[in-house]
TrEMBL record:
Keywords from the UniProt entry: Hydrolase, Protease, Serine protease, Signal
Name of the featured protein: Serine protease
Keyword check for Signal: yes
Gene Ontology MF terms: serine-type peptidase activity
Keyword Repressor annotated: no
Pfam families per UniProt: Trypsin_2
Gene3D superfamilies for the chain: Trypsin-like serine proteases
One annotated GO biological process: proteolysis
Enzyme Commission number(s): 3.4.21.-
UniProt record similarity statement: Belongs to the peptidase S1B family.
Amino acid sequence: MSPTSAQRLPVTHRLRVGMPFPPDKRQRVTQTSASPWCTTGLVTATFPDGTEGESTGFAIGERHVVTAAHAVYDKDLGGLATKVKFQPGRDAANLPFNTFTAAKWHVLDVYRDKDLTRDDYSLLVLSASMPAAVGRYQLTAADDSTLRGNEWQIAGYPDDKTPENSMWYAAGALAAVDQHLLQYRISTSAGQSGAAVAGYQAVSDTKAVGIHSRVNDDRTANLAVRVTPQVIKQIEEWKAR
């Protein structure tokens, strides 16, 4: 499909904040229509108060995208978003796969009540199917030794890089692993929430072991929801609705 141009999106709210750690080793991705980058895309949500926010998501099926819960739900902005769209492989103004509107989006009730990082994940159900060329991430409940023994990468749409809505990635080892969360000093910033924590430089065997959320309270590490059997089960239940 030929790329199309899009105007810059007016964004008045950046959803939560990750943190870049020195030295900031993020690199721009320019081949966003190639695997694995094409599986990641820009999520834009409009909230009840009219605020528009941008974050990152990744495809796990032809009509299913995983992102952060706070990408589509924010109590301070009126609650659940009223409109959500996904642009896989977006590169600044270029849209190699066009825009897909979400028909519905799911967030855990407990996240709405308690706003815990461990519950900060969401599923978007698109109104139309994405082409096979977009690719798919496989949600993978990796064991502790696998998580600690490998490097992982995070690609998304940071608001502190130019041009606007360009994709950037960085990689590194995890600093800590627990039952529900992954911690790392892989640089991110606002706009990258919802990105996959995925195998470093994996092209065909694309496994997502975490869902990037935010920086921790003392700003010493970034956090992701760990993909566990329970997280996978919940997402499968949402897909079946």
